[in-house]
Each structure stands twice: as C-alpha cells, then as structure tokens.
C-alpha cells in the first residue's frame, strides 16, 4: 500500500510514499518521529508542504504535523504567543491582526505552517521571522530530548537558521514563541509599502496591501501549483555590485550594510529573458519570475530541470549563482539541486 503525496505538497506533484501519518496530538507526534528516526525507515517531516519538491516517489514514511493551539501571555510591553507547529501561518497573522498584536502583518499570505517559519527564517516586505521570535521549542531526535532555545541561539540569517545547519535533519520543531507588541509601529521600508504614511496607516492597511501585492504577483497554490519564491535573493559585495552596474545600471538591489547588498533574484531571472520559459509541465511564472509553476502535469524532474536551466542562464549572464529555497526530496531523502 502507498499513500499519495499530491495533497501534501503545494506544487501538486503526483508522487507517493509508503505511508502518510498525520498527527494532531503533540506527544504522538514526538513519539512517532523519534521511533521512525531510530528505525530503518526513511522519514520526511512535513507541515504545509509549501517548501518541498518531490522528484520521485519517496521510499519511506511522511509525518504530517497537524498540532494546533495558541497560548497568549500578556507582558508589560506586549504579548508572548506560544503557537503549536501545525498552525497555519497566514491564519496566525489574521488572528494577531484581529487581537491587535502587532509585528507580523508584513508576513501575510506566506504559505505553510508555523513550525516551518524558524527553519527558513521566513521574511517579506522588510520583516523577518527572527525579528519577532522569542524562542523555539524542538525535540532533538538523536537524544529524544525536548529543548526551548532563544532567538539568539537559533542563529538566524537570511533564509537560514540552526535548523538548516547544525540541527538539519535532527530537530522536530514542536512550537514557537513570538514576542509581539500591542503598540502599532509600521514597517514600511520595502518599496510596495513605502508610499504609505506612517502616521496615518493602520495594521489592517498594511495587511491588506501585502495580501493584494502578493496575490497579484504570486499564484494561489490551490489553483496553480507552486512553492512561492523558488530562489533566494543573492547577497553580493558592494564591489561586485559596482561592476554589475557598469553593464546593468538599473539592477535592483537592497543595501544590507556598508559592504553587502541583496539583489532581486526576480529581476535577474526576468532580465535573462526567462519569464514564461518552460521545461515539460513546469514554467517560470509570467507575472513573477521568482516563481516556478506546475502547469498541470509537471513532474518533480521538470521542476528541477527548469530550476537548473535558470541557475545556468543567470550564472552565464551575471556571474551570480542562485540558490534554491525549497527542499529537494528524492527517493531516499533530501538532495542538493
């Protein structure tokens, strides 16, 4: 017997696995992951499936995190929210907006679950998960021990964390604690929000605009299979930027510090003439070049071949190597594209 993975990945790839185990009980989740980790059976832990590409049938079991719960603790200057890993991220953003808890409204409409947020250090429109993270609760599957580590100990970087580095493949994130404010302070540094007036704009205004911009650029995974942004925005030195500007004076970048800038990967892909480019059933989205979509019959192989062709073309044109954001999952586990 095998279970279909199509409902469990937002690319809508029609792969299967030995068994999908969906768990809403926290202790059962911990026990199951620990037992599978120490068995001969391959295991993938999934939340919303919005950051994974299954390239072939997976020869093991998939544990789907479905734990729910939000615990609110009021503090002197805001609230501390402890949120179970299986909660939907966008629904959490809406919950906070309704209760006047501020800090994550810029992160509206990011697909996936709360437990996945620290792994990637998700971010959008000038805000990163790291800026609101208080701590992360996880189980070390090697030892079977549960820990809660501070935001500083998560070693957050751009789309990076300790869970993608030292704890990669060894940690089951079970909950996160967010430190949010009850005092509204808008973050309007990113271009699509910069025209808003800080002394007039509301959190609802920011939320609505972020949803509008994202909906215009990013297809709904329910309608068109995708994993959102497929590539990270590359970080380069200011010297490398100056060289590129001689040929591409309109290159889009965001200053990080005196020595580094972040380039817009979408601009690079668009400039390389790849919007609409197809491999099999996979295509570069015609409205947002950072998104690879499943036109209906794409395979994981199509997605990866298209991604590799994008990487090659951008490297040839700009001497910059794009890095994929999603996990690439082969028959026996994760692989590097």
- Reading off the top of the CATH hierarchy, the class of the largest domain is best stated as Alpha Beta
Strand content: 25-35%
- Specify the CATH architecture of the largest domain: 2-Layer Sandwich
- Euclidean distance between termini CA atoms: 29 Å
Shape verdict = globular
Number of helices: 7
Radius of gyration (CA) equals 20 Å
The domain tally reads 3
CATH topology of the largest domain, anyone?
Uridine Diphospho-n-acetylenolpyruvylglucosamine Reductase, domain 3
Helix content: 10-25%
Average pLDDT confidence is 96
Helix- and strand-based class?
Answer: alpha+beta
Q: Total number of β-strand segments?
A: 21
User: Largest sheet, described in full?
Assistant: 5 strands, antiparallel
Q: Give the ordered list of helices and strands.
A: EEHEEEEEHHEEEEEHEEHEEHEEEHEE
Summarize, please.
With 337 residues, the chain is an alpha+beta fold.
Structural notes for this entry:
The chain has three domains: 3-65, Uridine Diphospho-n-acetylenolpyruvylglucosamine Reductase, domain 2, CATH 3.30.43; 70-215, 2-Layer Sandwich (Uridine Diphospho-n-acetylenolpyruvylglucosamine Reductase, domain 3), CATH 3.30.465; 219-335, Uridine Diphospho-n-acetylenolpyruvylglucosamine Reductase, domain 1 (Alpha-Beta Complex), CATH 3.90.78. Strands 6-7-12-10-11 form a five-stranded antiparallel sheet. Strands 1-2-5-3 form a four-stranded mixed sheet, with helices on one face. The longest helix has 19 residues, at 300-318. The protein is an alpha+beta fold. It has seven helices and 21 strands. The chain is globular, with a radius of gyration of 20 Å.
